[in-house]
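Sequence only, no structure available. Ideas?
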Amino acid sequence: MAKIAVLVEDAYQELEVWYPYLRLKEAGHEVYAIGTGRSKVYRSKHGYEIREDLSIAEAAKRDFDAVIIPGGYAPDILRRYDEVNAFVRTLFEKGKVVASICHGGWVLISAGILKGRTATSFFAIKDDMVNAGARFVDKEVAVDGNLITSRKPEDLPAFMREVLKQLR
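Reply:
I predicted one. Tokens follow.
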């Protein structure tokens, strides 16, 4: 059983949080909603709430096997927190699973982990990804070592297949 962080903030994309969160729990993993700590409850783009299990400050003191970075506009808030970027970078450097979908690539950029890596994202941030040093590919899922990336909610089945494969 792996311990997995799902990063959350206001304006998150519902499916990109809840599909991995529930799928990972269903597979028997320990899953935590990790917020920035500025609130206990975060709302999606359409108002759906998720309660923070741990703040990023609390999560940074624990060992995690993976981090999921959902999209929506939440990543633009998440990336403003040095603790979030350091958390993602540390997991990446330790060889843990770092999985991002849609606009989640913004956190990968701010964490400084894309240089020389093959990755994908929502097309609107392709230039940002490339400028951060990624080899951008337009496909439903890209796997480069412990880095897993996808483009949009429709890619979630392929995204989660790869995440679950790496957690085995």
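The first strand starts at residue 3 and ends at 7.
Hope that gets you unstuck.
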